[in-house]
Please model this.
Amino acid sequence: MSSNKPHTSIGTLSEYSLHAKLKEVYSQPSDELEADVEGYVADILRNDHVIEVQTKQIAAIREKVIALVKNYQVTIVHPISIKKWIIKESIDGKEILSRRKSPLKKNIYHLFNELVHVPFLLTNRGIKLEVVLIHEEEVRRHDGKGSWKRKGWSIHDRRLLKIVEKYQFSSPRDLLGLLPMQLSTPFTNRELATLIKVKIGIAQKMTYTLRKMGFIRVAGRKGRSYLHVFA
Model:
């Protein structure tokens, strides 16, 4: 199919191993991979169902997903690394210089780092989200092109080690299931953060997203903190 639209999904020659492995996990023998669908490259095409593996920002495929959902069911598969090992290799990749466990700890609630930028995306009928909690290795090489935070070390590859758990969100309301049962209303972001054991910034993104979706609302203040209740 010819189109003037740019292809918006990377191909197998340039993607990280993590992306390729998740495509392998989610694909079936009859599926078409790297399929040309209405001018976009779909990771997996299964009849009228498009499956997009998005290992980075979900917002980056917003335009693509909104375009495809007009005629297809779309499932976004998004991995969150709850355990990560960082491997530093020689520039040619022939020698492992070090391997250490990353101190950063993530969980399902870090999904809202992504959803806060696209709070209305899941409100489109036909869009589903599957979040995969994983263990991974991040391979770095010192090529001088990496960010200043990594002091010139670039991420050369991301490798899937293990799938730990999957969360399926078939509708926006399913996100309410992430709120802890012991949460009483009204509640503050700090109270929510304490219950789900995350930094307050994650709780703030969570309540912002749920407010934009119309599931909760602000019902006043407790000191400097907003009080949230279910809408």
Summary: Residues 1-13 have pLDDT under 50 and may be disordered. The radius of gyration is 20 Å.
